[in-house]
Design brief:
There is one protein chain. With 134 residues, the protein is mainly α. It has one domain. Helix content is 80%, strand content 0%. It is built from five helices and no strands. Helix 3 crosses helix 5.
Length: 134
């Protein structure tokens, strides 16, 4: 996998990180906190730097895995194919896996829609970046 574009993978990971800041910040912070049972004003359980580091590493691993998938399936040759693959992975794999977990955990549909929506957009963004910059 030495022919993967590492700068594009890092850019994709950064895009997910930035999307998360907007998605779970001004767009859905209050709704997400309410549905997740989290006090938005409570002191974090762990140091924020640790949380953000874990989130970035997870985004980087996901971007790398998605880049490998595009490379192996040769879907990354056209932008629309890469974006389509991102939406498909986000919806069919990630969102549906969350759906199963949320159903058994008794979590709300609204919480699932917020979290699933983020991941669908995350992988669509990966598709845009990796499709344009391959």
């Amino acid at each position: 996998m030495h022919d993967l574009n590492w700068l594009a993978i890092i850019a994709a990971a950064v895009s997910a990180f930035l999307l998360g800041g907007i998605w779970y910040g001004p767009l859905f912070k209050n709704a997400w906190c309410r549905e997740a049972g989290v006090d938005p004003n409570a002191k974090p359980k762990s140091h924020p730097a640790k949380t953000f580091a874990i989130a970035f590493v997870a985004s980087l691993v996901a971007a790398y895995g998605f880049a490998m998938l595009l490379h192996l399936t040769n879907s990354g040759t056209e932008l629309w194919k890469a974006v389509h693959a991102g939406v498909m992975v986000g919806f069919f794999y990630v969102a549906m896996s969350f759906g199963i977990n949320y159903a058994f955990a008794g979590r709300s549909l609204k919480l699932w829609l917020i979290d699933a929506g983020y991941h669908i957009l995350q992988f669509a963004l990966y598709g845009v970046i990796l499709g344009l910059w391959h």
